[in-house]
Amino acid sequence: MPPIPSPGPASHPRPRAGLSLVEVLVAMGIVGTLAGLLLPAASAAREAARRAQCLSHQRQIGLGVLGFEAAQRVFPASGWTRPGPGNPDGRAIGWRTLILPHLEQADVRMLYDVRRHWWEGTNLAVASIPIPIFVCPSTPALEPVTAAVAKPPRPALALARPLARADHEAIQGVQSAAVDRDRYGTGNRHAVMHRDSATRHAWITDGTSRTAMVVEAAGRPAVFRQGRPRTDLVNDQGIGWIDAEGAFSLDGATPDGAREGCGRAQGCTAAVNARNDNEPSSFHLGGIHALFADGHVAFVEASIALEVMAALCTRAAGDGPDSWPAD
Q1: Residue 194 backbone zone (phi > 0: left; psi -120 to 50: alpha; other: beta)
Q2: 37: pLDDT confidence band, cut at 50, 70 and 90?
Q3: Among 114, 198, 266, 290, which is 20 to 30 Å from 121 by CA?
Q4: What's the burial of 33, exposed, middle or buried (CB within 10 Å: 0-12/13-18/19+)?
Q5: Strand 224-225 relative to strand 287-292, pairing
Q6: Could you write out the DSSP letters of every residue in 6-20?
Q7: Are 97 and 212 in contact (CB under 8 A)?
Q8: What is the three-class DSSP state of 297?
Q9: Three-state SS for 64?
Q10: How far apart are the C-alpha atoms of 165 and 168, rounded to whole Å?
Q11: Extents of the domains making up the chain
Q12: What are phi and psi of 28, to 5 degrees?
């Protein structure tokens, strides 16, 4: 019988080499660098999507305004304090309420009682209904509006339910003394939608494509300066989409937003994004969206000259592009 071969030496698998501390640190550094590169890009992409949605909302608002004009033969007033189109009883009512039926919000409009001011009776319950089209998604989260100081004829309010917000507001025109007293007076300083107005299409002699109706005034009634919150300041306008006193005229401000309406000689040259309390402002980088009387929406750069913005905010001042200052 042949001898049985003796077993050879036991074979053991070679231990797998692990990562050294240096290699782990290098890998972590690479991952951190990639994350640092990708996160701003992702953030920019999200803001681009929010800005596109905001633009879409303003276009829909434009359809609502033009729908009202087609039905009434006049553009809605920014706010009524006397009888007029859409306001037979002469109550305090705002332009956003008037265009609700043209925004597929007829059910909300039916709940609104035109026999009362917007702050009376069941209208405050209507005021708490969010209307997404009136809000820009780029605006940060804000404290709910559960109270408001008196702004005659509106009394002080203590609200059981917060008012639903709005980031888009009618521009009434320009403040003559603040912008250009010689060019603008009581007869030509207005835009399309101002208080107690009933503007007809033919009255927009500066051109519907060059006359702004609605601009962003985001974040109100909270106060911001250059996009930074100022909790030490208060604002009594733009407290909700139902507010009939939220519209404003262009004043111009210092670039830091500390002062407004002081005139070019005193440094009030900024037209956009310096301050949000009753001046054109948004949380987009570099400008705002503006809705024009022909229904198109354009992005207005924050660097726009105050005189050019004033020309866009008036409908019959004869201040077309030929009169705009050179860059």
Answers
A1: beta
A2: low
A3: 198
A4: exposed
A5: unpaired
A6: PP-PPP-PPPPPPPP
A7: no
A8: strand
A9: helix
A10: 10
A11: 45-323
A12: -65, -35
In terms of C-beta density within 10 A (0-12 exposed, 13-18 middle, 19 or more buried), how is residue 93 classed?
Answer: buried
Q: What is the mean pLDDT of residues 201-228?
A: 96
Q: Cα separation of 213 and 288, whole Å?
A: 13
Of the candidates 179, 169, 168, the one whose C-alpha atom is nearest the C-alpha of residue 317 is 179
51-89 tens-digit pLDDT: 999 999 999 999 999 999 999 999 999 999 999 999 999
Contact indicator for 303, 263 with CB cutoff of 8 Å = no
**Cβ distance 316 to 206 under 8 Å?**
yes
Nearest to 75 by CA among 216, 189, 204: 204
88, with CB counted inside 10 A (0-12, 13-18, 19+), is exposed
Amino acid 46: pLDDT: 87
Rounded Cα–Cα distance for residues 251 and 262 (Å): 8
Distance from the Cα of residue 14 to its chain's centroid: 67
Q: pTM for the full model?
A: 0.85
CB count, 10 Å around CB of 47? 15
Q: Quote the CA–CA distance of 145 and 302 in Å, as a whole number.
A: 28
Work out the pLDDT band at 11, boundaries 50, 70, 90: low
